[in-house]
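[User]
Um, tokens okay?
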Amino acid sequence: MRFTGTSGPLAALDTGPGRRGTVLLVAGFTGSKEDFAPLLDPVAAAGWRAVAVDQRGQFESPGPDDPAAYTVDELAADLLVLATELHGEGPLHLLGHSFGGIVARAAVLADPGTFASLTLLASGPVGLTGPRADLLEHLAPLLEAGGVALVHRTLEELALTDPSAPPVPAPVREFLARRFLANSEAGLTGMAAAMTGEPDRVAELRSTGVPVLVAHGADDDAWSPAAQEDMAHRLGARHEVIGGSVHSPAIEQPARTVELLTGFWAGVPAGVDA
């Protein structure tokens, strides 16, 4: 499917109408709508319309050539425009994975009444720090030297030296390469800056009154489990730890992730609906 964004069309996977409402799923940095593929059919079977989207500049969504067009607020504006297309029968729930969670949070802060709930999946209270953020410092010189292709080749070489990296089937490797190479160079630059520069907005989010679920893998290596647990406490939010998962619960533990999500959405008060 193609939906309207503020700077161009947004590519999406859409399961079609759901009797219980709609769920908008937002991918993280260098991710795409396919990161939610294992969730779509079960969520639809449970009664929700599931719409997973590529943000601007990601995979099959085109984006501007200016890195300044990829701020958190600019990306959040796309979600608010998309939300107007998705409103129908029932509530509209919002989920953001990783950097997508930061963008989703900004969308809720910009217009809290649009969304019945927010799920922060493997996402944190502030901009990314630690080893993953350190890796992003090398992004700009790599892009300047050889574009997206050089960044991809470098990341592939790093993965080969990681003894803890699980084996990836050839068809999946081919898809991941095609997806990464389709990313906008400006988008990678702008999103990296946005992801590392985000301030703590937890108190602002709590003040909206929008119900929040904080869920993450037990071994998350982006935002630490401790940081996400503290965020949930400060939000007064439901907090769930997904065993056997690192940073991508939808891929690593889809059945448990679906169970948590559908239980949370079903428990949102019936009166909470944009």
Notes: The chain has one domain: 2-127+199-267. Strands lie at 2-4, 9-14, 21-26, 48-53, 92-97, 117-121, 212-217, 238-242.
